[in-house]
Amino acid sequence: MNTKGPIVEFWFEFASTYSYPAAMRIETAADAAGAELLWKPFLLGPIFQAQGYASSPFLVHEQKGRYMWRDVERLCAKHHIAWRRPSSFPRTSVTAARIACSHAEAPWLPSFVRGVYRANFADDRNIGDDAVIRDCLADVGVDADAAIAHALSAAEKPKLRDNSLAAQQRGIFGAPSFVVGKELFWGNDRLDDALAWALRPR
After folding, report:
1. Which residues contact 38 (CB under 8 A, 6 or more apart)?
2. Rounded to 5 degrees, what angle do the CA atoms 59, 53, 63 make?
């Protein structure tokens, strides 16, 4: 991760379809742009509930959901990202998100995040199953038992809730979102705009 350039916050939800292509390409794009990338996992559930949804809006609005699945399939083909529509949606992602929050500075975090997304959206594995998350941790050379225990410790466990509250305070209403200073960019298709804004002449 580049640590000298302007800062771009990447707010993502592991269950979010559009966060998948963003997560798979953002590190390379940020490095190429010379921007520092901060990975910010959070939960969309409380935000959707505040909007009056019991679950994903894509489940509530049938036509929107149908469009989303085809659109993500096209996006993944465009960016040469493996894709398989998950047999269950949305999947619980609390454990994965807690791990990402409590290991935010770990050098293996980006690879872990991509691994969880691949498990969900390329391999159709249940990321709500701790066994799947353990495999994702093992794949990046991490002691799964130690990483999970750390994430669930009394000091670390609240970090996911804090991140989710911080997302709401920033005005975030969906994922993926990118924050540059006080500027909010929403959606996978705004990734390049967020990087360009971060690098604009002051």
Report:
1. 7, 8, 9, 10, 104
2. 30
**Treating both helix axes as pointing N-terminal to C-terminal, what angle do 62-78 and 19-33 enclose, rounded to 10 degrees?**
40
On the question of pLDDT at 5 being above 60, the answer is yes
Name the helix (H) or strand (E) containing 179. strand 177-180
Residue 141, sorted as left (phi over 0), alpha (psi -120 to 50) or beta, turns out to be left
Q: How many CA atoms lie within 13 A of 55 on its CB side?
A: 11
Chain centre distance of CA 190? 15
Q: What fold does the segment set 7-198 form as a domain? A: Glutaredoxin (3.40.30)
Contacts of 73 (CB under 8 A, 6+ apart): 83, 85
Q: What is the pTM of this model?
A: 0.93
CA distance 50 to 45: 9
Q: What values do phi and psi take at 68, rounded to 5? A: -60, -45
User: What are the Cα distances from residue 102, in Å, to 53, 55, 138?
Assistant: 28, 26, 17
pLDDT at position 55: 74
Work out the pLDDT band at 4, boundaries 50, 70, 90. Answer: low
Domain ranges of the chain: 7-198
Cα 112 → chain centroid: 11
Q: For residue 2, is pLDDT > 70?
A: no
